[in-house]
Amino acid sequence: MYLGIDIGSSSSKAALLDDGKKILGTKIVNLGTGTKGVYEALENLYAEAGITRADVRYTVVTGYGRLLYKDADRQITEITCHARGMHFLMPQVRTVVDIGGQDSKVIRLDEDGTVRNFVMNEKCAAGTGRFLEVMARVLGCSIGELAVLAAQATEDVAISSVCTVFAESEVISQLSQGAHPNDVACGALRAVAKRVAGLCGRVGMEPEVAMSGGVALNATMVRILGEELGCDVTPAPDCQAVGAIGAALLAREFYRKANPVETA
Amino acid sequence: MSSVQSIIDALCEKALHPDRTVAESCKQAGKEAVGFYLYAPEELAYAAGFLPVGIWGGSTEIKLADRYLQGFCCSIMRADIEYGMRGTYNRLRAVMLPTVCDTLKCICENWKVAVPQVPIIPVVYPQNRTLPAGEEYLREEFSRVRRELEDLAGQSVSDAELEAAFAVYEAWREAMRAFTKVASTHPQTVHAKARHLIIKAGSFMDKAEHTREMIQLTRLLAELPEETCAVRAVATGLVGEPLGVLDSLRENDVAIVADDLAQESRQFRVPARAEGDALSKMVWRIADQKGCPFLYEPEKTRGQKLIDLVKENKADAVITLQMKFCDPDEFDYPIYKAELEAAGIPLLYLEVEQQMDSFGQIGTRIQSLAEMLL
Q1: Which residues on chain B are in Cβ contact (under 8 Å) with A114?
Q2: Which of A132-146, A162-176, B153-167, B354-368 has the highest mean pLDDT?
Q3: Using CB atoms within 10 A of its CB, is residue B111 exposed (0-12), middle (13-18) or buried (19+)?
Q4: What whole-number distance in Å separates Cα of residue B199 and Cα of residue B205?
Q5: Which of A260, B60, B158, B261 is the residue whose CA sits 20 to 30 A from B180?
Q6: ipTM above 0.90, yes or no
Q7: A118 has a chain B CB within 8 A of its CB
Q8: Which of A76, A102, A120 is opposite residue B365, by nearest beta carbon?
Q9: Using CB atoms within 10 A of its CB, is residue B296 exposed (0-12), middle (13-18) or buried (19+)?
Q10: Per the CB < 8 Å rule, is B368 touching A103?
């Protein structure tokens, strides 16, 4: 069996794969790098699959916390792993959008799933999951509830500040002037979508476009991003685990390359 | 006899400690130092008996410079003003600053107030540098700079002294071109950080001394077997810094095999024309510089220059080291990005500033590039 681990800034994901590339299970724990999240995810995954650590032939770790995790055989970037995972799940996809907690990335894929190009947002939080977290806090709701509020909006409240800190002040100002929280929530999602659409333009977007990562669970976000891009955007199946699945696929590939006789 | 590694280590050490290196160089040469940034007629200062030394900013905390250059300005000039106000540049008899961008145009006036103890000699390059009128103007401008340096030195500079100084610099430029060519076939020994520091050391040493070191290093390097690396890249931008980026390149076995950096190859890639006196040759070296965002060029040949560098050096990709808020570089980016994409050359864009201290995301991008190309 092959293990893929994706340690993000706000959650830890793990995926288990067999020799025939069948996904045996995935686990997500909402605790990111520097926490026990990854160990909890692995414990749950092993228990569900009825295996132990000794049954894992090869492990690849990816994500923001990949350099701190020492029990893997190899570390690979989330760009490569999301690309690999997405091509496995949705081979027709040519552009992958992943809005992470710390950064957002857009990846261009070739027909065979190799990365042709990629862009990441610069180091500020504009266009990332952190922006949504801050907006949810101002509105007194969870990130999940932010999507529910936004879905009920009757109009967008434009949030013009690129900087997350300034945008927080702007939202507080909008609310104090009587803007409806639903409309503010919708404006927050659109602000992120606009930033991500800018990244898509830089990378040279081609359809189909799919989203990986936890933000893809937010149907309103997916819809608004599609509006900004002017094309359909599809959330990947098991979207949160795409990076971990990609890592598991690479673990299988690396192991088979190193042990051609055993795996022939 | 020195080994390749001992020469590299010594030059890297000199580049990492500019203050100490400049003090030693001044003592050895029996000269006083004059600072310069980007394009400056260093030969004039050399002929006047000064040691021209680069003022290329640095990784320092900005406290005083905020009064003149806010956070949205070029981090190199912010650092230069900071060092100037802090007294780090008090050793310099003057600084020569070219007015090639909006920040530099303003800073020449700010410098007089912020760093009054170090006189400034602005150098104003012509927009139409390739026209006869532009060349005539630049000759006049260099003559003015020469007079200011003569006043500073308290002695006149003869034409023979200027010819001799130009010859020293032309020999250095030839040695640097030879070094970068041989270095591109030894990407492990001359990894990204070493390459940058070896070249940068020349900014703080007497050029004649640096030339001697470079000739010896190039000869010894050429005797070593050629080396390979995972990714061969061409760097473009203002400077190959901060060093954390170069560390990330090395960690991912990405070598810089050629560059289009203002601090590096643009200083020496243009050879002098055969005809004319030293002053004319200095003017023509500016006229003949192609693909530099700091010198007006309506044809915008930077993209083609990068494509040529990739082909000549069998490179796999181009890496843009975009100094934050460097407008001239930012204006060029979309133009050469489209040209590189059309040529099928991968391009990695890294926005950097000298004062940055977190390289996690940049490391991820560099590693992703390496994974993409493997």
Answers
A1: 372
A2: B153-167
A3: buried
A4: 11
A5: B60
A6: no
A7: yes
A8: A120
A9: middle
A10: no
